[in-house]
Design brief:
The protein is mainly α. Helices cover about 80% and strands about 0% of the residues. The longest helix has 28 residues, at about 65-90.
């Protein structure tokens, strides 16, 4: 396993653990619907990171472009979830438009993943 894939798996594991913790917090706190959204984003995209890492490792998609998509998922889901969690726990935003920026980057990362499948791979 390459170092890049190993890093992606580690990050996906952290995202998954954070997603479960936020889901638990949402279940026990009143008025915590933002945490449900944050949890979902982390859990869904942790799986996307794992899947993308596997596709890169197997050579099914273009490696560099696929890795860009996977790291995009990590950064974007972290921005989105981090902003929502900070609003819940601290009462303020990460920075203005952090959640929408994260959401936009998630859309872009999915498109980059599609591009990585369409881009010719070197033999």
């Amino acid at each position: 396993m390459t170092a890049m894939v190993r890093i992606l798996v580690i990050l996906a594991g952290i995202m998954g653990a954070d997603g479960v913790m936020l889901a638990a917090a949402a279940a026990h706190l009143e008025h915590a619907s933002q945490l449900e959204s944050a949890s979902s984003m982390l859990l869904f995209h942790a799986s996307a990171v794992l899947g993308t890492a596997l596709l890169v490792e197997r050579g099914i998609i273009h490696g560099r472009i696929g890795a860009t998509a996977a790291f995009g998922f990590v950064v974007a889901a972290s921005l989105f979830a981090g902003d929502l969690a900070l609003r819940q726990f601290a009462g303020h935003r990460l920075f203005p438009f952090a959640a929408p920026t994260g959401g936009t980057l998630l859309i872009a990362s999915w498109l980059v993943l599609a591009l990585s499948a369409a881009w010719p791979r070197r033999g």
